[in-house]
Specification:
166 residues; alpha+beta; 40% strand; Lipocalin; eight-stranded antiparallel barrel
Length: 166
């Protein structure tokens, strides 16, 4: 014999449950709206060592719309070679040149805010292995800065700081 637990709201409960549900949905919507904007990258710092794994002058742009995001960071001082200069390079120099050019971090897709967590659904990425993946990143506001943070398997925490410009 199977038993099914069934909850049938009565009286005030009929009004209370939808009201609480609407409140939670509204709070998530407000959190998403708070993130809408254009941000410039300020820094990425290992909170244990105080060091950055990236060049100090690394640039980045994060665009958050209502439900979609796009992010890219890169080193602004990457070298440039004309087609003729590239064609004249040895294989080793071409590989080094392309590795420098490919030192970017870029992805875009949909996102949700769940409390103090941004959930990124990577629809497009510079790395084919990341396409279709989901990333959950905690965030907080420090004055006018958006701080997105994450930890690596070794326990090191990184603070990724962004300043809203629009």
């Amino acid at each position: 014999m199977k038993y099914v637990l069934c909850f049938q709201p009565r009286g005030r409960t009929k009004i209370l449950i939808p009201t609480i549900l609407a409140l939670f949905l509204a709070l998530d919507a407000c959190a998403t709206e708070d993130l809408v904007g254009v941000y410039e990258r300020v820094s990425l710092t290992n909170t244990r060592t105080g060091e950055s794994p990236e060049a100090v002058n690394r640039q980045g742009l994060l665009i958050m719309t209502d439900g979609h995001y796009s992010m890219m960071t890169m080193n602004p001082d990457r070298g440039f070679a004309s087609d003729d200069e590239y064609d004249a390079m040895t294989s080793e120099k071409k590989i080094a040149y392309l590795q420098e050019w490919l030192d970017i971090n870029g992805h875009t897709g949909r996102y949700l805010v769940q409390g103090d967590t941004i959930v990124w659904y990577r629809d497009i990425s510079e790395s084919p292995k990341e396409v279709g993946t989901t990333t959950r990143l905690s965030f907080e506001w420090r004055n006018d800065l958006l701080v997105i943070y994450f930890s690596l398997p070794n326990g090191d925490r990184y603070d990724w700081v962004w300043r809203k410009i629009e």
